[in-house]
Input
Amino acid sequence: MSPVTVTRRYRFCAAHRLHTDHLTSEENRIVFGKCNNANGHGHNYVVLVTVESDVNGGVVDLEQLDRLVNDTVVRRFDHHDLNGDPEFARCTTTGENLVKLIWELLEPKLPNQRLAKVGVIETRDNYFEYAGSAQPAGGSRG
Ligand code: NI
Output
């Protein structure tokens, strides 16, 4: 039986610049295009957090989830430069890396609900999604 999930939407505004010191300036320009612009740019990020319902009660405590996501994710990134975040010291601030980081920040802090998926909408046309690395093939999860 597939689990029932609940998805909540959160928002934050942040600046970033796609750039890596592993590449030359020219290579950075080619790989990241205008996102490599030295002045950076901003996005109104939308974060979609999907949790599985509690196996015991079947009810997700949305207030608790909101508090957790606001404290752990929104406050950390809202009106910040993502490139200045310590977690991005060694990787670029791509949507892929951001959605994985948000997963890694939230997953250990969800005691009663299982985090099922994190989505990040970066622009009108860019959506990133991560559901964790450990997905057992069939059988019980968790
Ligand atoms: Ni960007």
User: Anything to note?
Assistant: Strands lie at 5-16, 41-52, 80-81, 114-123, 126-130. Confidence is low (pLDDT under 50) at residues 137-142.
